[in-house]
Each structure stands twice: as C-alpha cells, then as structure tokens.
Specification:
58% of the residues lie in helices and 7% in strands. It has 25 helices and 12 strands. The strands form 3 sheets. It has a 5-stranded mixed β-sheet. Strands 6, 7, 8, 11 and 12 form a 5-stranded parallel β-sheet that branches. It starts with 7 loop residues before the first helix and ends with a helix.
C-alpha cells in the first residue's frame, strides 16, 4: 500500500494513536475482567451494562488519544506558534553575556550535579531512540491497519447486506392466529415499537433484525416442528432484544471489531457482550413468563440442535440460540435470578473442577425438599420411576456436553412434576476406577444435590447371566466404592441396586446368593413392574438428532408417548388380573434426550390417568413386591412377567414397538 500520498504528520498521528491503543484496550479489558469477577453474582443487566460500557471506552480512549496527538502536532508545527515564539524572542530583554538566566526557572548548567546531568542525558537518549524506532515502524503499522480496515469493512458490509437480503427474500406473513399470539406476547413484554414478524425460508433460527424498522424472522419449519408454547418463548426473547435496542449495540460491536481488528481484547469484550446480552434477555423472558421457565429451557435446547447443524444467525442480528447454551439453561432453571457466592472473586474459573462445582451449586430452581416431600396419596394409582444409567449417554453429540444438558432438562422436569426418582450410576462412565471424570461425575452430583435418590448397578453394564458370580460381585463392589465417595460428600449412603438388563442370573441359587450378599452390604434390589422398550425409541431418536432430522424426531416423540399409553394399559391389566387392584408400580427408563424432550407428554399422561408419583421406598413397600418368583434365563423382563411365570399364569400380550423404530434398531444396532 503506497503511503507517500499521506502527509507525514498524519502517519505519525495515526501511528501514535494505534500504539497507545494497544495498552489502552488491554487496560479496558483487564478492568472489565475484574469487574465481571467482582460482580459475577450480580444481575445479567448489570454485567451487560459493564460490558457495553467497556465497548464505549474502546471508542472513547483511542478517540481522545487521537485528538490529543493531533492537537500537539498542530501546536508543534503550526505557523501561529512559530510566529508567536519569534515575536516573544525579539521582545524579551537580553542579559549580558556570561550571566546566567533566571527568568525561566532553570538553574545554570554549572550548578547542576554532574551525576544528575549524566542520568538525564542517558534517559533522554533512550527516549529519543525509542521514539525514532517507533517513527520508522509507523508507516508499516499504518499500512497493515489500513489493509485490515478494508478487509473487515467488507466483512461488516457483507453482514449488513445479508441482513437486508433476509428482510426482503423468502419472507411470508403469518396466519391470523400467530399474529394474535405475537401481539399478545409483545403487549405482555411492554414492547411499544411497531415490530413486524414474518416466516422465513432462508433463515434457520429465529432472529431479530433492524433498529428503526425492527422485524422478527422465524423459520417457516419451526411453526410445524416446535411446540407453540416453546416458540412463543423464543419470540419473546427476540422481542426483548428489540425492546433493549440490542441491534444497535450489535452494530457498534461490528464497528469496533472493524476498527480494532488487530486487538484480541476487543474481540474478547465483544464476546462478553454477546454472552451477557443473552443472559439478560433470558432473565427478562423469565421475569415475564416465570411459570414457563422449563418450557423456555427446552426450547433453547431444541434450537441448539439447529445451531449445531452449522446454520448460525448473522453476527449483526440478535438470535435466541446465541451465547453459552449450558450456562443459559442453568440460569433459566435455577431458583433465583441472582447468583450469590461467598468465596473469593478470584477463585472462579481456576480449574474445570471448580467451574463444574459452581454450576452444580446454583442449578436447581426448586428446593430439594419439594422433590421428596410427596403429598399423602389420595388415589390408588401410584408409580415410582428409576433411571439407568446415570450419567446419560447421548448419541447425538459430544457425550460430556450433551449429557449435561440432557441431565439438567430431565432433573428440571422431575422437579416440576415432583417426582422423587432414583438414578442408578454407571461407574465406568464416571471413573476409570481410580480417578473421576470431572464433567460426568458432576452430573451425578447434580442429580444428588437435586434431592434425588442415587443407586448403583454394576461398574460396567453387564448381564448377570453371562458373568461369573465372583466377577459380577466384584463389579458391583467397584461401582459401590466409586459412588459411595460421591454420596459421602453429603453424608448420604447407598440403599438400592438395579440389575443391568433386568437379568437376575443363570440360576436361582446364584440369584439368591447374590441377594443375600446385597443384604449384607445394606443394599436392596429394585423390582421393576413396568418394563418397556423406551430405550429402543431413544436410540432411534438420538440417530435422528445426529442427522438433525426434526421431522423424524417429532414423529418418534409422538409414537413413543402413544406406545407408553398402551404400556400403561398393559401393566394395569396385569395388576388387576393378578392382584385384583392397582399395585404400586415401578418403571424403568433411560435418562435419554427423548425422555427429556417428551417429559411433559409422558409425565402428563400418567397424571391424566390418575397416577401419583412416589419414591421407590413407597413402591416396594407394597405387599405385591413380596410375591415369590423363581424366573431365570438369558433375558430380563418385568416382575409382573416373573410372578406370572412362577405361578404358571398366561403372560399378557405386550404392546409392540412401532415398526419404523424396530427396523431402525435392527438395522443400525451396534455389534456387541
């Protein structure tokens, strides 16, 4: 780039401004970092304001430096100063030769100590050397900055062009029903601007665009694929962005990233703004729709599936799926809007373990006492729910991250429906036998600290039928040792064991011997009366999630709930035929994303059919669980089947799995 046409004074002025901006912008970022640490327990609005203020300073300080450097340059080189200096020099009275001047406040050189003069000269020479080197570098630095300015200006212009394209192409008005819903949400949020809303065939996630004429674009497919209540909560999020004028802040972020593209601190500040902006918008949505916080969290989790597919919202727009999803869901589901921590402002973030512990401590939005404080049973239908195995194993993404999100959603639903569930630990998923895996073990702590029961299976999910007795016991002991340490952190003890695959061994003798060992270890085995093939539906659902096939995911959710409705009929018939009443049921599920996403329909189905959710203690206190059974073999099944076989009764015909789900399992089942 040819800089010969630019005056030297301009090159030097911009050069000094760029040089000073390096330390100035770093200082702003350091102060913001400290402020965010000190106020990490403050509201999202305050943290967002601090971040935006830091952005404003990134413009203000370099602008002030540019003004000062320009002014000094004019004073040093302008004709007025030289003329005034010359006139003053001519008018000043002259001293006789050899007489020291005292009118300028400087001692005669002969009066200054020799050592001071020497030090002054060294510092002066060093300063002049550094200034000279900087002036040599300035032309190259300015050329680099101008080149980057052109490139990032094109980036900014491209983003604005893309936004304009989204406004005009592939948009379509909504139905009267959705326009009415939209207006109702806008009125509830006190949005006074005239905001338009359209469906878009180009945009893959909901997004708010524009400042003077704002509009919201919603992917057309979402109206069919997402629950209306969830979609309303996402639209509310976009309206909050418009109400807060976040689009204007986004524009200034784009300008800052263009002007100061060379400075990593500016990019960090901009990233903090985007993060805190989403937290602040989430908080505003929850303030307005406090009763729907779980619906909103689920909606964000579902939108994440679209984001993972690689179609993000434009950077200059405000989209609901921005920011850190895990932290956003955690804040949405927690009980209090504000987070208060008593430990030092510097301790957070030092290690992954400390971060995980912090997330666990603030997760629950319902006090644990509400989970197990079940009301007295007023009806005859009761059911306990057990989950195997904790932590979840999701096939649709990175296990630690995806499992964490799934676990949080399931726990939130259990708390919402006041279900005192029990989760059985898969030891191999949280430890190698010596060290713990921090992210996965904190999922167990998350479950524990939510007031939910924790039990164990074997260290690895193995079948008793295919495992020698001693090896099977050793596997349980290994899992027990790992899990007991985690429970001991809260002075809790293990009480329950769950047979993997519901398989109780090769012989009655082995089974009875193992049951005696459990009794000596103060463990009780769980007898599931309500077995089902949920895991098969969950497998198909995870594959659909991996392919981002939203239509298939929706079909599987519907088919799964329909299947579970038939299974309720099946086990109610078993209970009445065998015992003449509705015994307390115990159902086994896997902590899958399908269960998390279908929780409202699934748990709501049980409620509609008159069920009360109880603990495994209450369920197994039913006299029916004392019924003898002697069934063994290379398979596992419900205890109703076991009791029926032992009594020589005819087995009830179990509802079949949907053909498409069955075919998916048969074709894509991994080899053992």
């Amino acid at each position: 780039m040819n800089l010969n046409m630019i005056p030297d004074t301009v090159v030097e002025t911009l050069g000094w401004t760029l040089l000073h901006s390096v330390w100035q912008l770093a200082l702003i970022a350091i102060n913001l970092f400290i402020a965010l640490k000190v106020y990490r327990g403050a509201s999202a609005n305050l943290r967002y304001s601090l971040s935006v203020s830091a952005l404003a300073l990134t413009f203000a300080l370099p602008a002030a430096t540019l003004y000062r450097v320009t002014t000094e340059a004019q004073e040093l080189t302008g004709p007025t100063r030289f003329q005034n200096s010359e006139e003053s020099f001519r008018a000043a009275p002259r001293k006789p030769a050899g007489e020291a001047r005292t009118d300028i406040g400087v001692e005669p050189s002969s009066a200054r100590p020799a050592s001071s003069a020497s030090s002054f000269d060294v510092l002066s020479q060093a300063r002049e050397y550094l200034v000279g080197r900087c002036r040599v570098i300035f032309p190259f630095a300015l050329a680099f900055w101008l080149l980057g300015l052109v490139v990032f200006s094109l980036r900014l212009a491209g983003g604005m062009w893309h936004l304009q394209r989204l406004r005009t192409n592939g948009v379509k008005g909504l139905s009267d029903e959705w326009n009415d819903r939209f207006r109702a949400v806008a009125d509830k949020l006190l949005v006074r601007k005239n905001v338009a809303i359209f469906s878009s065939s180009l945009q893959r996630t909901p997004v708010a665009i524009g400042f003077f004429k704002p509009l919201i674009l919603v992917p057309a497919a979402l109206f069919l694929q997402v629950d209306p209540r969830q979609l309303e909560s996402i639209i509310a999020h976009e309206l909050i962005h418009i109400r807060r004028h976040d689009q204007l802040v986004s524009l200034f972020q784009g300008v800052a990233e263009t002007l100061f593209f060379y400075h990593p601190c500016v990019w960090w500040i901009s990233r903090q703004i985007r993060t805190e902006r989403e937290f602040a918008a989430d908080a505003a949505v929850i303030d307005a729709f406090a009763e729907d916080r779980v619906v909103y969290a689920t909606a964000l989790a579902n939108l994440e599936e679209i984001r993972v597919a690689g179609h993000n919202a434009p950077s200059l727009a405000a989209a609901a799926n921005g920011g850190n999803l895990m932290k956003r869901i955690e804040r949405i589901l927690q009980n209090k809007t504000e987070i208060r921590r008593a430990n030092s402002a510097w301790s957070a973030g030092l290690t992954l373990l400390l971060i995980s512990a912090f997330l666990l401590a603030v997760f629950s939005f319902t006090p644990k006492s509400l989970v197990n404080a079940q009301k007295s049973v007023t009806g005859d239908k009761r059911i306990a729910i057990g989950f195997v195995a904790i932590p979840p194993v999701d096939r649709g993404g990175d296990p630690p991250k995806d499992s964490d999100a799934t676990a949080r959603l399931i726990i939130a639903k259990l708390q919402q429906y006041k279900i005192p569930a029990i989760g059985f630990i898969n030891g191999a998923m949280i430890s190698d036998g010596e060290k713990l895996y921090p992210i996965r073990v904190n999922i167990v702590r998350l479950w524990r600290d939510a007031g939910l029961e924790v039990g164990v299976g074997t260290y690895k999910h193995i079948s008793f039928y295919h495992t020698p007795y001693d090896e099977y016991v050793a596997s349980v002991e290994k899992n027990e040792a790992i899990t007991s340490k985690i429970l001991a952190e809260r002075n809790l003890k293990l009480r329950y064991f769950s047979y993997p695959y519901l398989n109780t061994g090769r012989s009655v003798e082995d089974r009875d011997r193992f049951e005696n060992w459990l009794g000596q270890t103060n463990l009780t085995s769980v007898k599931y009366t309500f077995d089902n093939n949920e895991w098969m539906y969950s497998y198909a659902y995870d594959l659909a999630r991996e392919d981002n096939d939203l239509n298939t995911m929706n079909e599987i959710r519907v088919a799964f709930v329909r299947y579970m409705d038939r299974m309720i009929d099946h086990y109610e018939t078993y209970s009445r035929d065998m015992f003449g009443r509705d015994v307390a049921q115990s159902m086994v599920l896997t902590p899958s994303r399908l269960v998390a996403d279908s929780a409202d329909d699934l748990f709501g189905l049980f409620q509609k059919r008159g069920y009360t959710f109880i603990s495994i203690d209450q369920a197994q206190a039913d006299e029916a669980y004392k019924t003898p059974e002697t069934m063994v073999g290379d398979f596992g099944t419900s205890w109703f089947d076991r009791w029926a076989r032992t009594q020589g009764r005819k087995l009830q015909k179990e509802p079949s799995v949907d053909a498409a789900v069955w075919d998916t399992w048969q074709k894509r089942k991994p080899a053992k």
